[in-house]
Write a structure and sequence with these properties.
The complex is a heterotrimer of chains A (about 260), B (about 60) and C (about 230).
Chain A: H1 10-15, H2 18-50, H3 64-91, H4 94-126, H5 134-155, H6 159-174, H7 176-186, H8 206-238, H9 243-252
Chain B: H1 2-6, H2 11-51
Chain C: H1 9-26, H2 28-48, H3 53-74, H4 77-86, H5 88-94, H6 99-128, H7 133-160, H8 167-194, H9 200-228
Helix pairs in contact in C: 1-6, 2-3, 2-6, 3-6, 3-7, 3-8, 6-7, 6-9, 7-8, 7-9, 8-9
Classes of the chains: A mainly alpha (about 260), B mainly alpha (about 60), C mainly alpha (about 230).
């Protein structure tokens, strides 16, 4: 495989190969998983036990603690996915493409959850399950972008060609993401304007903000853990005939019988 | 407790939301394990298929 | 017909555009279908919704735009499929002429053959739905700026799906989400004009989008075509 020569030298170079990244990912997963669980528990505690009732929306506003992190993760995961796609095109590396492939389903999941929770937040707050405002609608578009990426990958048989074609698609799609943000500012919308603003004072109570940020970090850690887990399955399948996969197979010893009767892990 | 679950009358909406998130997470995590098992099965099939083609025996690595 | 005589960028673009237009003229029936489809779809809405003139005037821009979007999808698979099938596309990849220019020529021809007719027929739809003259003008302007953008988005998707299973539904799945901003600003231009806020901002955004798509489109499409020939 083409190993890129980079200024940062050996560390990047070493972990750019699936064989060395596989065990590293395996070691990282429990840490990120535990972080996700702890952050989520903390966030939910602050969100439900500490944060006060909203005087306008009552208890219904507590959906925000999963709606906003999900919406944010859906958006941000797409950016990260596009970053890996860019790397895979620029350096012709397989692992970058596999990381993008691993991130897509989780991003789509968060987009869907964001839409669902947005609908169930919208109904008691604004009277309708679906309000065609810019933010909800652009998350729907984002979901379609994810599905298109996954569908394109699935429809191309050669994995390397699928890598490169879906990478181009992701990069074209990523141009849409800032346009989505732009249309939120452009349009006069029904949806609550961005309540986390870097410059303006937050419109929410401090505790609500804390809970939301904790949940966002939890979603981050979860996404990383899941993506690392998924990429390991992708790696062994795509590198099935490699020596390192064979070594792993032998080490695992006999387990459940497969379709052909051979035994593996 | 019941009062808390009722969420000031908004219980249906709050729990439908958190419930869907829980379902989505479970589906994803279960799917991860199934994916992994299927991948290992496919690895075994592919390697078994090629075992006869490797004259020098297993352990030949691809770049 | 090898592009041996045109190795400069504009020469290649012109050659590819001419060639595709000539081929398109040979299958005029296919182009007519796209136009008929456009008018058919717009006619369906009053039948499905209501003939109330006030309502129709309000939803006219959106309907015209959605119909144009769907009609433009129809012509997309033919953009690369024929050349891909007989190996001409591979020759273009290998040719000394810049692939980006050849691709740009094809997309320009595609827009001239399938997009421009829609722009020219927009006034008909406008009259169908009771739009006043100024609103029709804005609609035509928005389609004139937007349909070339749709051609480029479609070209990228068509190149990516060369040799992939899934056919035209996969193509639609890829193009439609990307086309949404164009749809929003295109239809929004007419609505904004109608509500007195003026269409300048929307049309400017469409114009900017058109420039962006002409800057990046050739590179992205050429890359996708190369990927399909690896």
């Amino acid at each position: 495989m083409n190993s890129p020569v980079t200024p940062s030298g050996s560390i990047w170079f070493r972990y750019a190969s699936p064989a060395s990244f596989y065990p590293l990912a395996g070691r990282l997963i429990p840490w990120f998983g535990a972080a996700a669980a702890i952050l989520a528990i903390a966030g939910l505690y602050v969100g439900f036990a500490v944060a006060p009732t909203d005087w306008q929306q009552g208890e219904a506003y507590r959906i925000i603690f999963i709606h906003v992190p999900a919406a944010w993760m859906a958006m941000f995961t797409y950016l990260v996915m596009a970053f890996w796609c860019a790397l895979s095109l620029a350096f012709n590396t397989r692992l970058s493409a596999m990381m993008a492939q691993a991130l897509a389903p989780t991003g789509a999941m968060f987009a869907f959850v964001s839409l669902w929770t947005g609908a169930f937040w919208g109904r008691p707050t604004w009277g309708a399950y679906w309000v065609w405002d810019a933010r909800l609608t652009s998350t729907l578009i984002l979901l379609f972008l994810y599905l298109g990426f996954i569908a394109l990958r699935a429809s191309i048989d050669d994995p390397r060609r699928a890598d490169r074609a879906s990478a181009v698609l992701a990069l074209v799609g990523v141009i849409n993401v800032p346009i989505i943000y732009f249309s939120v500012r452009w349009w006069n919308t029904l949806h609550q304007g961005s309540t986390i603003s870097m410059t303006a004072a937050p419109k929410m109570a401090q505790t609500m903000l804390v809970a939301m940020l904790l949940m966002t970090l939890a979603a981050w850690a979860y996404t990383i853990a899941v993506a690392l887990y998924r990429v390991r399955s992708i790696m062994i399948e795509r590198e099935a005939l490699s020596g390192w996969v064979g070594d792993l197979e032998r080490k695992a010893g006999p387990a459940a019988p497969t379709l052909t009767g051979a035994t593996t892990r | 407790m019941i009062e808390w679950l009722a969420m000031g009358g908004y219980g249906f909406y709050v729990w439908s939301s958190y419930g869907m998130l829980a379902i989505a997470l479970i589906v994803e995590l279960v799917g991860l394990r199934r994916h992994r098992r299927e991948s290992w099965r496919r690895v075994a099939d592919m390697r078994a298929e090629h075992a006869s083609e490797w004259a020098a025996g297993p352990g030949e690595s691809k770049p | 017909m090898k592009p041996a005589v045109a190795t400069g960028a504009f020469g290649a673009l012109w050659w590819a555009c001419q060639r595709d237009l000539r081929l398109a003229m040979r299958s005029r029936a296919e182009l007519a279908v796209i136009v008929v489809f456009f008018l058919l779809v717009t006619s369906l809405f009053p039948l499905a919704v209501s003939p109330d003139p006030v309502l129709l005037r309000a939803i006219a821009p959106g309907i015209a735009w959605v119909a144009a979007l769907l009609a433009s999808l129809l012509g997309l698979s033919r953009l690369f499929a024929a050349d891909h099938g007989d190996g001409t596309l591979e020759q273009m990849v290998l040719a000394p002429a810049p692939l980006q220019a050849l691709v740009a020529g094809k997309v320009l021809a595609h827009w001239l053959a399938t997009g421009v007719p829609l722009v020219l027929l927009a006034p008909v739809v406008g009259l169908q739905f009771g739009l006043d003259t100024d609103a029709i003008a804005v609609l035509v302007a928005s389609l004139a700026l937007g349909t070339p953008i749709l051609s480029w988005l479609g070209a990228i998707a068509a190149a990516l799906t060369l040799g992939a299973r899934g056919g035209s539904s996969l193509l639609a799945l890829l193009v439609l989400p990307l086309a949404v901003p164009v749809l929003i600003f295109g239809a929004g231009a007419v609505e904004s004009y109608g509500s007195g806020l003026g269409a300048d901002a929307h049309l400017s955004l469409l114009g900017a989008g058109l420039i962006v798509v002409w800057v990046f489109g050739p590179a992205a499409t050429a890359l996708a075509v190369r990927i399909a020939h690896e």
